[in-house]
């Protein structure tokens, strides 16, 4: 299979590889996927408690080149954004940006899951209520 | 910024990309091409033309090739049937025997790591009322002879077990299998595509009744193969699967691929003459590659028996690194992976799973297929490159980090997706 130039770029030069202290109060950690499925992503964020801005984002990924690129891109996109803003990133945005073929769409889904899991963990730690689902919001 | 880009230097005399996937196909030996050339141009006759010199010339070439192939496997020329390749040979052998011996029984025995050309042929026969036993393999990839002995019953007509596996290079005990089959009066077919020309295979000593082989795995051309069909003790009969002009003693109709057959014959002749030296050479390269990788990397292991193995095969898992991402990093080296991501089905290799490997380890496997034209310098480069990329990808691997911290990955509740 031929990879898109964007995937190759992220694979060759992954952005924001690393580890944050998961016990730290301002760090949220998301670990998604499974080794048996061939991909595991760990995405971590450090959030400024005053501004709710994601000041740092780090990842490590076990997976194919598209999985590595999807998580690398995800960290690039969420860095500098407010938490609620980061939650608006959709897997389809990643598919488009990386020109992922249909067989690799699950990599982008996993990256979206990783963002949500990391933010969810941070919210839990900091007693921030989960945003109400869109349907409920619309009804209010 | 971290980078996965490799800075390994390319040694003098090595040109990229390097081909190290000789189980998939092998390059044509220039000596083979030379032998074939006249049969594309001036000697273009149809081997079935009996009434002019063009036909006689082609027929002579075909008969010479039949001799060369027979000699390589200890058969006689009349026992060699030409086909389009090993997939056809396997289909013809299994379906042809199943059809011909239907009155004697309907039971076929094979094993789980066979090539799809055998497994899917057996599956089709199951639809037609045949009973198929798929023997398991042990962790080393070999079948247990006792399992085979127990599986044979009074309805068994055929045992089909490969000589060498295409993924892990493991050699099945074909001599013992053949002996057992002959004792029990059951026919023995072997898919010897990967073994012929690489390790000694002898249809007499190994009690083989039917054998499939292919041109392009032994530095011959694609699109040509052969089936050995025993003529004495016992005389094996095979129902044709392609009907027509009655070529190849009625077992396989169709105008013979004369240049291909000449190439297959020449490839067989070279293989026989050079097998011993070549095997020692490849074993040296392979073992060197293995020890280089093992001395620099942790959490790697060989899949399948090292003792019963093709000289040019090395199948290794680089745990905590996903196979496709590794292939991407060593993209100037042609090898293959058992990773699901490299297959259309998103399922990891069924061969590796049959050894009892977890999906996670199967995803991390790489098959190195060394061949006649690989050099020590190439192996050195490949080893350095693989070590470099595996180390870089492990810096990216959350699993490797967790294991290094002493976390037991099996205790984590992963969310399968």
Summarize the structure.
Chain A is α+β, with helices and mostly antiparallel strands.
CATH uppermost class of chain A: Alpha Beta
Number of helices of chain B: 12
Number of helices of chain A: 6
Mean of residue pLDDT values of chain B: 95
Report helical residue fraction of chain A: 40-55%
- Portion in beta strands of chain A: 15-25%
Structure, described:
The complex is a heterodimer of chains A (140) and B (417). Chain A has helices spanning 5-12, 65-78, 83-86, 91-98, 105-126, 134-139, and strands at 27-34, 39-47, 54-62. Chain A is α+β, with helices and mostly antiparallel strands and 140 residues long. Chain A has a single domain (5-123), classed as Sufe protein. Chain: A, CATH 3.90.1010.10. The model of chain A is unreliable at 134-140 (pLDDT under 50). By secondary structure, chain B is of the alpha/beta class. Chain B folds into two domains: 18-27 and 275-408, Aspartate Aminotransferase, domain 1, CATH 3.90.1150; 30-271, Aspartate Aminotransferase, domain 2 (3-Layer(aba) Sandwich). Chain B is 37% helix and 13% strand. Chain B is built from twelve helices and 13 strands. Chain B has helices at residues 30-36, 53-73, 86-100, 116-127, 145-151, 174-184, 258-296, 323-329, 350-354, 359-362, 376-395, 398-404, and strands at 18-19, 80-83, 107-111, 131-135, 156-160, 187-191, 210-214, 225-229, 300-302, 313-318, 333-334, 336-337, 365-369. In chain B, the strands form three sheets. Chain B has a seven-stranded mixed β-sheet, with helices on both faces. Chain B has a four-stranded antiparallel β-sheet with strand order 9-10-13-12, with helices on one face. Chain B has a two-stranded parallel sheet with strand order 1-11. In chain B, strand 3, helix 4 (116-127) and strand 4 form a beta-alpha-beta unit. In chain B, helix 1 (30-36) runs antiparallel to helix 7 (258-296). The longest helix of chain B is centred in the middle third of the chain and has 39 residues, at 258-296. The two termini of chain B are 31 Å apart. The model of chain B has no long low-confidence stretch (mean pLDDT 95). Classes of the chains: A alpha+beta (140), B alpha/beta (417). The interface between A and B is medium-sized, with 34 and 35 residues.
């Amino acid at each position: 299979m031929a990879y898109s130039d964007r995937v190759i770029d992220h694979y060759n030069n992954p952005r924001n590889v690393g580890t944050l202290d998961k016990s730290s109060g301002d760090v949220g950690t998301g670990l998604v996927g499974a080794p048996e499925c061939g991909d595991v992503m760990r995405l971590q964020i450090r959030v400024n408690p005053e501004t709710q801005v994601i000041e740092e984002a780090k990842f490590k990924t076990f997976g194919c080149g598209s999985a590595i690129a999807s998580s690398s891109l995800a960290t690039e996109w969420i860095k500098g954004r407010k938490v609620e803003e980061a939650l608006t990133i959709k897997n389809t945005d990643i598919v488009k940006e990386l020109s992922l073929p249909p067989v690799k769409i699950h990599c982008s889904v996993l990256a979206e899951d990783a963002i949500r899991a990391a933010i969810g963990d941070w919210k839990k730690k900091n007693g921030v209520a989960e945003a109400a689902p869109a349907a409920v919001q619309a009804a209010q | 910024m971290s980078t996965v880009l490799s800075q390994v230097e390319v040694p003098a005399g090595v040109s990229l990309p390097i081909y190290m996937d000789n189980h998939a196909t092998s390059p044509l030996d220039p000596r083979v091409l030379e032998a074939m050339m006249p049969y594309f141009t001036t000697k273009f006759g149809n081997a079935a033309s009996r009434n002019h010199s063009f036909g006689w010339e082609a027929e002579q070439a075909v008969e010479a090739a039949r001799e060369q192939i027979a000699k390589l496997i200890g058969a006689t020329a009349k026992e060699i049937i030409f086909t389009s390749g090993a997939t056809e040979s396997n289909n013809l052998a299994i379906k042809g025997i199943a059809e011909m011996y239907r009155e004697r029984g309907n039971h076929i025995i094979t094993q789980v790591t066979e090539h799809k050309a055998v497994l899917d042929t057996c599956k089709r026969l199951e639809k037609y009322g045949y009973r198929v036993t798929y023997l398991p393999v042990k962790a080393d990839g070999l079948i247990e002879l006792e399992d085979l002995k127990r599986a044979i019953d009074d309805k068994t007509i055929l045992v089909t077990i490969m000589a060498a596996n295409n993924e892990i290079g493991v050699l099945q005990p074909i001599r013992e299998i053949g002996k057992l089959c002959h004792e029990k009066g059951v026919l023995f077919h072997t898919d010897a595509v990967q073994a012929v020309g690489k390790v000694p295979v002898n249809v007499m000593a190994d009690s083989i009744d039917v054998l499939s082989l292919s041109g392009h795995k032994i530095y011959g051309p694609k699109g040509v193969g052969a089936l050995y069909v025993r003529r004495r003790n016992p005389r094996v009969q095979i129902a044709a699967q392609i009907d027509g002009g009655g070529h190849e003693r009625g077992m396989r109709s169709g105008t013979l691929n004369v240049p291909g057959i000449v190439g297959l014959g020449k490839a067989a002749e070279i293989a026989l003459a050079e097998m011993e030296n070549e095997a020692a050479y490849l074993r040296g390269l392979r073992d060197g590659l293995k020890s280089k990788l093992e001395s620099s990397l942790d959490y790697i292991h060989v899949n399948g028996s090292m003792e019963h193995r093709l000289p040019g095969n090395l199948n290794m898992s680089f745990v905590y690194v996903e196979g496709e991402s590794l292939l991407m990093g060593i993209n100037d080296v042609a090898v293959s992976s058992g990773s699901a991501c490299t297959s259309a089905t998103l399922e990891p290799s069924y061969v590796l799973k049959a050894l009892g490997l977890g999906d996670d380890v199967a995803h991390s496997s790489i098959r190195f297929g060394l061949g006649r034209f690989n050099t020590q310098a190439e192996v050195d480069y490949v080893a350095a490159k693989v070590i470099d990329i595996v180390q870089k990808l492990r810096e990216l691997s959350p699993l490797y980090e967790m294991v290094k911290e002493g976390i037991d990955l099996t205790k984590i509740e992963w969310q399968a997706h």
